[in-house]
Design a protein that fits this description.
5 helices; alpha+beta; OB fold (Dihydrolipoamide Acetyltransferase, E2P); 5-stranded mixed barrel
Length: 278
């Protein structure tokens, strides 16, 4: 897949800037493993997290017992205390769409009024043509008139296209709705896509983007991480792409461990020597 020729040059020029901006935004996710109040001890469903229910309240992945004397875990994961809430960040799980999330979506079907997309969640998402084009743009004075694009049909994207989109709305009563209108949103070209458990995405990013910066620099790659557990990546050659994929898989396996960023730097540097990469 490829952009139109005139768009490709802009994409290549701004790719690195795009990556940095998106990764900085992702790093602010409140459930990240790197939170300073996240313990490194695994908890299991039913495990008592605290009996101090006057000070603490149940957060994500936890519940208050019927007698209100204990907060217990609902998931296998890492205990996190954030403000006065106790959460359990799962080590595995489905992606749960939330408005504002950026996701990497695959167009799986379309009809004249909407696209259907796989976003790695329990339900497919939908994208309406009106949410693929900017509205209210002043086209007066444009040479040749305004662009020949009709926002009432689904001609812009094809089945099989990979899109970076944003969740507009998500609830239990209807399919999540997406938009591709916004900075850095739209069709993604070339490269490869891999998926990891969505709860482990923050570990690929790292505190203040430290992990992803190392991955990018050490493997000479461009990386685009989204909150639904999917990662788009492209390196200067296949050998570096393979190394990057191996590194991300290692991060996924060891997401619950301490000192992961430093270990990954050593791992990549050693692997580059073994594989004869510069």
């Amino acid at each position: 897949m490829s952009f139109k020729d005139e768009e490709q040059g802009i994409k290549d020029k701004n790719q690195e800037e795009e990556e940095e901006a998106v990764n900085t935004e992702e790093d602010s996710d409140p459930d990240e493993f790197e939170d300073e109040e996240t313990t490194r001890n695994l908890v299991v469903p039913g495990e008592i997290l605290t009996t101090d229910t006057k000070t603490f309240s149940p957060g994500r992945g936890t519940i208050l017992t019927q007698d209100r004397s204990k907060i217990i875990s609902l998931n296998i994961g890492l205990k996190q205390t954030k403000k006065n809430y106790i959460n359990v960040i799962p080590l595995r799980g489905f992606y749960t769409p939330r408005p504002g999330d950026k996701v990497l979506a695959l167009v799986t079907d379309k009809n004249p009024v909407k696209y259907r997309l796989d976003i790695n969640a329990k339900e497919d998402a939908i994208l309406k043509p009106k949410n693929t084009m900017k509205r209210g743009r002043d086209t007066r004075g444009m040479r040749g008139g305004p662009p020949d694009r009709n926002t009432s049909n689904t001609d812009m994207f094809k089945i099989g296209d990979i899109l970076i989109a944003k969740i507009l709305s998500a609830n239990r009563l209807s399919s999540p709705e997406l938009t591709t209108v916004g900075k850095y949103l739209g069709k993604k070209n070339n490269g490869i896509v891999i998926s990891i458990d969505p709860p482990k995405i923050p570990r690929v990013i790292g505190r203040e983007g430290s992990m992803i910066k190392n991955l990018k620099n050490l493997t000479k790659s461009t990386i685009f991480v989204t909150q639904n557990g999917r990662i788009w990546l492209k390196a200067e050659d296949i050998a570096h792409e393979r190394l990057l994929v191996d590194a991300i898989r290692k991060i996924e396996r060891e997401a619950h461990t301490v000192g992961l960023t430093d270990r990954m730097v050593d791992y990549i540097e050693n692997e580059k020597k073994k594989r004869g990469l510069k």
